[in-house]
Structure formats: C-alpha cells, structure tokens
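Dear colleagues,

As part of the handover before I leave the project, I'm documenting each prediction I ran so the next person doesn't have to rerun anything. This entry is a single chain, and its sequence is reproduced below.
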Amino acid sequence: MPHPAIDYPAFGPEIRCPHCHRTISALFLTDTYLCPRHGAFEVSPKGELIHVPSGRCWHQWEGLWYRQHIHIDGLRFEIGEALDQLSRQGRRATQITIAQRYQTLFEGGLGRESPSIKRLYPLGHKLFGIPLLFSPTPQVDLRWTSVNFELTTVVDTAAQLSYPRFRTR
C-alpha cells in the first residue's frame, strides 16, 4: 500500500493559477496551492479546486481549468469574452454548445430575460444571436463534466475586410 503522503499534492507540485495562469506551487504536504496574486486554492474531496477567499470552484480537463458556474451571468460573461477573442482572431462563432448541467439554469435565464424568446426563436435558443445547443450527457462524453461550452467557428472574411490597414512610416 502506498504511503498517503505520496498522493499529496493532488494535482502535482505545481499547477497554473486558474485566474492569472501563472505557475503556482503547492504548500508542503497539503492539497493547497498558493498564488501570490490570488491567494489560496484548496483541493476538495471531490477533486475540485476551490478558491478559498471566494469559494469559486474549478474542474480540470486535459490540463486546463474550467470554472464551474452557479449563476448564468458568469457563464454568459465567459462566453462573451470567448466571442470577443474570436473576433480579434478574424473568426466568428456559428454555434454555441453549452454543457447540459447548465440547461435548467440557462433556460430559466433566457425566459427571465426575454418573455418572447420562444416566439423569436421557435426552433431553438440563441445567445448573442448565435444558435445555442446543449451538450450530450457526461455519461456519453466525459469532458462535459468539466468543460462549460464549446464554440463552432468559421473564418470571418467580413471582419477581416472591415478593419482598415494602417501604414507605419
């Protein structure tokens, strides 16, 4: 039987801070990681990373941290940031797939925001004018236990044409 101290720290001696993406170290013989900028992160018994000062929770999937949202506004903000980043890359989203665990939270938010949403989009929901789908269950695709959303993208030739090119002398 392995020695219990070998399992510490849970995610290895270093991780990347979920906020600032700096490499942060684990405290000796604990499941706590300390970011000089954002404070302590503890590993819960379920294997989640919890930010001690705020109580926010992250799951890791393929080396990346995904914040687990409890309010629709946080998820919308994260999707909005991803769409802005796509725009700066000359791409646009044609579809948003959101983890099924947010379906009830999200549909409640859509209904609260716009009472005529079903009349406007009778065949499905839209967010930021982009068609919205919900993911398969985590039993079908395990990554959806951690991943919050996925964007289907294409190159946006209109966006590339709309920005004038400036000459520097």
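Residues 72-88 form the longest helix (17 residues). The helical segments are 72-88, 103-113, 117-120, 157-162.

All the best with the project,
I.
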